Amino acid sequence: MSLQASLLGLTALLSVVSSAAVDDGCNALSSKYPDKTFFPDSERYKFENEYSWTSTTHLGPSCIFAPQSTKDVQFALHTFQKHQVQFAIRGGGAMPIDNAGNIGPEGIMMATTNLSTMAISDDRKTVKIGAGVTWPPLYAYLDQFGVTANGIRSGNGGVVGAILGGGPFGFMAYEYGMSNIAASLDCVLADGTLVTASADEHQDLFWALVGGGNNYCVVTEATLHTIPISSALIGTVSWGPGVSEKYIKGVEQFALYGAQYPKASFEGQTRWVPSRSPDISFDGYLWYSGEGDVPLGLENFTAPILPITRGNITRTTMGQWSNEFNYAPPLGTRATFHWLTSAANATAARIAFDTYYESIASLADVEGFSTAFNMLPITPIVTSAPPRNAMGLGSDDSPSIWYVESPLWSNPEDDERVLGVHAEANAKIREKLSAAGLGPLSFMYLSDIQKSQIPETFPAYGARNLRKLKTIRDKYDPKRVFTDLVPGGAKVALA
Questions:
Q1: Is 127 found in the same domain as 103?
Q2: What is the pTM of this model?
Q3: Domain region containing 13
Q4: What is the largest CA-CA distance in the chain?
C-alpha cells in the first residue's frame, strides 16, 4: 500500500471517529436536556444557527445546545470533554469571523440565548445580566431606572462578547473610558468549577477576560456598573457627499481636543453603496449628555462649519434610540471587519480614506456590495480611564484615530475576491502610513479584527501582557479545553 493511500485511509478513519464522537455528544445532551438540544430539522436549530447578522457565520453544527443555567453549562462542558467534541460558544453573534461563535458539522454550538436574565441592584449602581443579553434590551431595561451602561453605540451584539472582545466602546467612553464596564464576571471553568472573577477575587482571571476572548471559561453572568445618565442628545446624521476635507479635519480636531468636552461623542461612518450612487456619503453618530439643547464640543460637525443634510439630534434615552434600528441585514449577507489605527492627524486619515476607496473601486460590480469606513477619533480619556488591562491600552495610545472597515456582499462565490482586494488595500494603507510616520499604531481591538488579523492581535498587547495571559490560561485551563476543543477565534496559547 502506498503512503498516499495510507494517509487517505487514516484521514477517513479519523473522520468517522470524529463524526461518531459528535453524534455521541449530541445524543448525551439530548438525553439529558431534550428541550434544550436542537437538531437540523427543527425551527429552533435554524434560528440559533442563523442568529448572527451575517451568513459568513452560519456554519451548521451537528446540533445546538442552549443552556438555561450554570448547571446546564457544567454538564455540557463535561460532555464535550468526555467525548472529545469540538464546540463553539455563541453570545450575541456580532463578530463576523466565521468560527468565532459557531462551528460546522464537526462540532456542537453552545448558544447562550436562554441566559437572558437582568436584575438591577437596590442602589441602581450595578446590574446583573445573563450571557445571552444583547445591548438594545439592556438599554431598554435600564431606562426605567433612569440609568444606562457604558456600552456600544448601536447594534444587537452581545454584552458579554463585547467585554471579552476588549470592552464595549461607545458614546460614553469619551467620559468614562472603555473596557471598564464589568464589576465581575461569573464563569464556568473547564473542570466545571463556577468562579466569580472581579477586582477582589480571581483578579488575574478578571484581568485576562477583558480582551482575552474565549480562551478561559464560559461566562454565564456579568455584573455591570451603571451610569447615572437618563437621557442625551443623540443623532444619526449625514452630511452628504463631497465634504471630505471638513469631515476629516473634524475627526482630527475631535481626537486632539475632544477631551475638553467629555460629554460629547462622535463616530464617523463614511459609506459607499455603488448600486445606488457612485458617491461616498459622509455619515455619523453624534452624542451629547450635558444639559441644554446645544451639543458643546460638536461644533465641527454642525452648522455653520459642516451643516447636517439629513437626520437630526434629539433628546432621547439609549433604550429608545438603540431599539429604533432594524438590525436584520438582507438574508444571506456576507460580511467582515478590518481594524486599523493611525496618529490623530488629518493627513493620516486622508491617506487611509483615499487609499481604501481607491483600492476597492473594482468591487463595484460585486452583487450586493457596499461598505463603511468608520473613523473613530480617540481622546486620552478613552484610553487612560480604564483600569490596568490585558490589552496594554493606556495614555500612549491617544490621541489617535481608529478605523473599522465593514464591507458587505451577497454571494459566497465572491468571498475570495472581496477579501483579496481588501487585503491589498490594507497592505497599501499600512505601507503609506508607515512611510509617513503616522501609523499604524500597535493597539488591536479584538472585537473588530478580521480573521486574517488574528496572528497579530494578542502580540500587539505587548510581550509582557502576552506572557501573563498565557500563564493565566495555563492556570485556569491546564488541559487546553478552550484552546483545542474550541478552535474558533484568537488563541492565546498559539500567539
A1: no
A2: 0.94
A3: 3-111
A4: 82
